[in-house]
Amino acid sequence: MSRPAKPLITRERAARAALGVIDVQGLDSLSLELVARRIGVKAPSLYYHFKDKSELLSEVARLLLVDVELPEWDADAWEESVVRLLVAVRRSILRHPNAAPLLLQFFPKQLLLPTYDRYAAGYPLPVEWRMMMIEGLEKLTFGSAFFEAAARARAIEPMPAFDHARLPSLAAAIRANSLDDEGLFVETIKAFIAGCKARQDSRDAAAEAEGAPTSRRKSKG
């Protein structure tokens, strides 16, 4: 029997097969046997590509971010570009809610560093504020995705049922909210960015009143 023109197993193909198992059967049901069956090979063959199951799961976590559909970057519309990027990241994770917990265990931050560098260069804030912006946007994005994914994986509502009479302020806030989960995420990101800008402006105004240098007169780095 002749050998196949292409190898039956690659790291990516095995990881995508594992992701398919997780999507359908859940993370706890994943086994190397099920992954191998999807590819059409024997389970021991996977050990030529992964030293153990954890390494395979790490590659699955990586796929959740590799598969982000990156939006077009508009240098003249930094905030809109950032919002589009973060929405794309969140959507990519939520396409696979059962697999989302893997990002908590195997977060591939190295993969994100070039994107962080590119977007940080356009932040409308002084350079000393940029790590705060990176940290805030990262935590808001992944935190939102993880909570929503957990609810979807368990087929429950993100906000549990409660007695509106006992918690009237929360009930009123929910009734007044007209946004879906993605719309609420977008407005949260915009509010965070606006808050950072407002805080910078407030500090600049205070510094200017004292005759001290403001961020607008400092090097942007």
What brief labels describe this structure?
single chain, 221 residues, mainly alpha, Arc Repressor Mutant, subunit A, Tetracycline Repressor, domain 2, 9 helices, disordered C terminus
Q: Could you characterize the architecture of this molecule?
A:
The protein has 221 residues and is mainly alpha-helical. It has 2 domains: 11-65, Orthogonal Bundle (Arc Repressor Mutant, subunit A), CATH 1.10.10.60; 71-217, Tetracycline Repressor, domain 2 (Orthogonal Bundle), CATH 1.10.357. 60% of the residues lie in helices and 0% in strands. The chain has helices at residues 11-25, 32-39, 53-66, 78-94, 101-105, 109-120, 130-153, 168-176, 181-209. α1 crosses α3 and α7 runs antiparallel to α9. The protein is flat and about 75 Å long. Mean pLDDT is 90; it is low at 1-5 and 217-221.
